[in-house]
Design a protein that fits this description.
heterodimer; A: 571 residues; mainly alpha; Serine Threonine Protein Phosphatase 5, Tetratricopeptide repeat; 2 domains; two-stranded antiparallel sheet; 44% helix; B: mainly beta; 13 helices
Chain lengths: 571, 1043
Amino acid sequence: MRKYFAFIVCLVLMAGCEEYFDREPLGNPVTEDFYESLNELQLGLNAVYNVMADNTWQKCEWLFGSGPSDEVNRCENVSRFSPEGEIMQLSYTPENIWLLNRWETNYRGIFRANWVISNAEKVTIYEENIDAVNDQLDILGQAKMLRAFFYFNLVKTYGGVPIKPEVLSIGGGASDNFIQPRNTVDEVYEYIEKDLREAILLLPSIDFSNAIGEASKVTRGTALGMLVKVLAYQASPGISDPRWSEILTFTDHLVNAVPVSVEEVLHMDELYPDETLEEISSRLLFRETLDPETLFTNSYSYSLSDDYDLLWHQEGEDVPEWMFYVNHRETPDGSVDVGSGFSEDLCGWSGYTANAIQPSEYLLGLEGGSDPRLKTSVIVQERVIYIGTYNGVIYTERLGGGHPGPTKTHSHKWSTLDFERPLRTADNGKNFRIMRFAEIILFHAEALNETGDPKTAIDLLNSLRARARKISQDRWVDINTQAVNDLQYGTYPEVRDKIWRERQIELNCEFDRFWDIVRTGRAQKEINAMNSKVGEPAFTINFIPGVHEIFAIPQNEIDLSNGVITQNPGY
Amino acid sequence: MDRIPVMPISLPEIIKNMRKRTNHLYLLRSLGLCLALFLLNIPLWAQITVTGIASDKDTGEPLPGVNILVKGTLIGSVSNLEGQYSIQVADAQAIIQFSYIGYLTQEVEVGNQTVIDVALVADNIDLEEVVVIGYGAIKKSDVTGAISSIDTEEISKMITSSAAQALQGRASGVQVTQNSGSPGSGFDIKIRGTGTINNSSPLFVVDGVIVEDISHIPPENIESFEALKDAGSAAIYGSRAANGVILITTKSGSEGPIQVDLNASYAWQDYWKVIEVMDPNEYMFFQQMARREASVINHGYDVFMQDLPPEEMWRELFDNDPIEGQFVGDWLDLISQNGAIQKYNLSLRGGSERISYYVSGNLLDQKGMIDKSTFNDKSILSDLNFDITDKLSLRTNINFSSQRQGVVPDNTFKEALIFSPTSSIYEPSGDGYLIESPYTNVLWYHENQRKNLLTISLQLKYDISKALSFQSRAAYVNTNRTTSRFWEAGDFYYFSLNNSTTDIRRMASYTDKLQWENMLSYIRDINRHSINAVGVISLESSSYEYMYGKIRGGVGNSLNTAYLSSGFQNLDVAGSAKQWADLGFVTRINYDFDDRYLIQVNFRADGSSRFIEQRWGYFPSASLGWRLSQENFLNLPAWINMLKLRGSWGQLGNNRIDEYGAYTFLSSGMEYVFGSEQRNSLVDGWAPLGVAYDAIEWEKTTTYNVATDIGLFNALVFNLEYFWKYTTDMLIQVPVVPSTGMDSSPFRNAGEVENKGIELTMNYRDNIGKLNWDMNLNFSYIQNEIISLGKRSDPVYGPDEGFHNSVFGADDPYFRTKTQVGHPIGEFYGWVVDDINRANGEFDFVDINGDGIINEYDRTAIGNPQPRYFTGFNLSMNYGGFDFSLFLQGVFKVDVWNILLYDLKSFNNTNAFNDSWQEFYLSSNILGDELYTELDNTETATLPTAYTLDAGKSYRPSDFYVEDASYLRIKNVQLGYTLPRQLTEKVGVDRLRVYVGGMNLLTFTNYSGLDPEVGGGSNTAKGFDNANYPQARSIAVGINATF
């Protein structure tokens, strides 16, 4: 009725018309009316996680992290002249669709996280309800941790990228902030570090892997682990850098349960010259100002899983080694399949020939090729790996043949054995893994070596090697678990090489290899080592030092920014 | 003013009476009556004999064939070759009426005269006709904008339920395309080209009420039918008129005794064209050839058929036994039936001094040419007018229509044409199970669409003074649509409940719309000045809701249980809602001086809830007219009856855009799983896909129109128009930098489109003795071009479905249209065929960019689906009791993408081939076998080799599939005979006409598909012929009776 009254008023006064138009948009909620309750904030956060469950995002992780490195050299279903093939051989142009895919998907994560972060304070909660208050902090912390992770992906791929405003607005004039120039690498890392450090304060310290309905959420442990990695990517080996001792502090906290203080986490003097702790606390929605002396104790319960191989199977999905992963799910009858299909698309399985991630023979031949970790994670065509019965059926697992051509390999880490899959076409909800505790141990060793303790570093490496020896031989027909021996102590450079080699084998095909060889300045050397063994020029990688450490900015971004975004040198 | 009407009528009266009659109707009706009377010319009770000569007032020439009637009686006569007549009247009070085609009717009271010579005044054709222009009506001679009036008499001769179909070809600049020949199928109407890549449908106004479409209006109920084409005339509808306006006024009551009209017709329908496909033997032979070829090209495919006996070959090929009589061969024939339309219309019309009424009931029932395609349309219209006092009147108009449509799957025709002719209906095992085939596609699929539309309008009119009146009209429009789909499980031999293919779907939508308009109008003539002004405040609001439910695994094959509660798995539901409100302030002033200088000025301000920041749009227009024929100083010769120049300029808006384009919504469905492998929960995630631009505003179209109207010899009227239409601020999704992380770009006002063209209308009326004839020709030329698509001018690509293979990877699907700057909207896009590669039998494409490689960059524009020329021609004649009408409609220079060719020419691994294969196919020269010699015409073949495996590239989008689909069609022919009144009177019928006719009797076209008229699709995806349901050819009989 008021609308018709407004209309009458319109007739008389030509005023008050606005009320007549005030029609609530129906259907889905508009952003102005959303993010008002904890539940809605959580729904917003779920959408951030959803980005990582996207097939394209996951493919980018392997295509950029492993594709152009020495651990992968060929992709069966991918032609050398395809966009994927060009990335893998570093022969792409800025128009390459995958450059755009990686850029877009990570920025999509940032876009969604920004909605949560910028609206977290809008949520109405009763202050007496401690759980609700903690949930609000938790959600804000998760969003910050994930945003940092997406920016980290971008900065390591493209160098300095634009840091987007938390609230985007479109308009004709100054209010239009869609286009932002590139920030420097240091500025982006500072932004990431702040997010991670603040997330550490906000996030709960519990280990969610055992909490019902909570597993796979990022926690304080995840944020700490990511901070360690981010610091390591900025520090240079062999050069004195305060970051190495900081890494040591955090890895000591994670590995040896040494408490850290709020001050240590925030690194106030360096990172927050313009903000007091009171201001930070208020911005992070803490009800009381944080005390810099407060100590966090380790209650994360991260540990190495007993069986290296088992980690990648169904039973290994919930073990406390996983610090960060994307949860997929598939019901036994296949009726619910929430996953990206990454494993089906790119890793194939026995009996099928379609497998795109092909670990290089160079990787297979490392250290004599007998390390059981390599043997169990890289399968060569026609190699029988398992003969046994499952539910009364005799299985022989092997990688099928088919098309003629070079010998095929596949990464067993990402494929699912036949008897583990509920349907022939599915993957049993195999999770997409991002970070595990073994990597923290490796960073701990690296930081120890860099800060003058190579002996303890070797002890840590040996703990991983001892674990490798525990691989159950039940599944494997042809491996020798005793082929991996303890390492000898050595000098700083010897130990450094051993740590890097250990990373290469332990973390093979976990999409970190390219970043690792770039961050340690060995990209050209390692890639050349592989190129010289490949023989076929068609499958070599064309690495140009000074150019290919970072990828080209997608041409689309440059075009649409009207030149505000500039291209990386060399492209 | 040399042409004074016999009965001078003031303009307000014309407006008041405009629904009662047009001159057309009036002339025809009196003509018919006179003819009847002439045949009945038996003086029985006459006492006075009146004689005289009827002549032309201007020339003094005698007029033969003038109808003479004693008013109020049935006594009539007709003048002879010398113009002489004789008639007997009862007494001195009798009034004699003289009427003649092309002349104004004259009445003379007999008095004491016995010789009455009359000089008839030529009727300046059309000039005194009244044209409805939205919120009022004006004399046709005073029109300054571009308005096409459609001859309602002619369109009621077509056997159609839909006003939209009747409009096709009737007006210049108005292009109507039927989506398909399926019974009840919708129409795409465009006025003066495609103004935007968004919705370019015109605005439909029925009796002042804005409605979504006009398919529910039976042509018989239409009193006047107008298309407002330029800004000068359409600006009164401001924000929604950028794509033109279609105005329909339905019939209303009039004072007088009850008049009952009954129209009934029946038509038989059939295909006008069939495509010949192979018979089983030809097919087998061809398959063998094709597979051999494929086996050579594709390594690993066994060459297995060389020396097999025919039966063996058959089994290898088709996996069944060649049992005589089992093959269907012609699948289309199997699912076809004889189509039929029956149509009934009954109306009552009349009134007393205070109350008048028009009530009409309509029924149309159509059985399509394919089994189960049906259409049923029932509607009632009630129009009542109450003159409460001399100054106050109330008019109520209620229109209800209920349409039911039985729909067959879209691909029915295509499947029936390409399905293997060697397949049988039943399983070869003989168990009586049906094989899934085009036959079962129709048999097991049930789709019913229902649309109910109710319009109620109340109009109160108060005459404040002689010149000033106030009107208030409130209207309510309720549309509800439901669609039900049901796939039977069928009786596959492998059917089981676990594997049920039963699928039940229900869709329902409801729209409620309110419209309230208050109008003040002022009409006054002061000496030679004439003013007609209106002011309107218009308020409109609408809400819409949609629901969807789907479930599988019902109890079986019974339609009785095909409801959602019968299923048990794969439940899927959806729903949405929308609402909007608009408010408009309108003024229009028509001023004319001495009938010579005409000026019209419009201004409309519209506000809409669709926009947030730029809520108001302002739409001005002005038009001028100069009637040169009224100027004395020009001294035009007498044979020029009319010469008028007119021009208009104006800006219009388009509000047919997304209701919520300015809002940033969140979307759901961004799922994630939390929890361990054993205990987890699936959660939904919500996030916006982008940030909307809240300052978007109306799309605006600026139109210039210049025209001239010429009337010659009292018989010929020319109408020539040139228009230039420029759309700016077209709402498009301009891409934003990918680093915003948005999935969809916000709408912004960025694009620009130009349409320009020429329209010509010619009308010629004459008579030779008792043969009267009337010819009407309209012709339009339109050119469409995209001027801008935003800052970076990113092209908009059209559909990519229909192509299963992607040679360049999944990221580069074969888009088939590209809308780009400097080209028309929705232009076809693909490779250009150079020749057939004589070595491998595939197409060679032209290297467009000349880089020596044929790749995706060699695609180019290969056709324009928008017709450049379209025309309509109508001829109607009557002689004595006979009448004849012929209507032709044509579209020229238009391209259609014939998707059927993929299958009929068999590059796409399908089963049937066009019958013409033997002459054209290139067989690979690898084959030397004599069996294939005749196909091995490597030098002369015009078609690529036929592979049954996707080895070739001939299936890629290329100009091979684009055909010119110009056509000229005899849309309607009708021959009628009105029975002599003395016969019909005895059974109480005033007038009885019987007729035979036909629709789509002949179609002239070079297009090879089923029908050159290809409709459907969005503006960027027009002209794709997926073997649509073709238009039917019909033969009809019918009667029109008036009691």
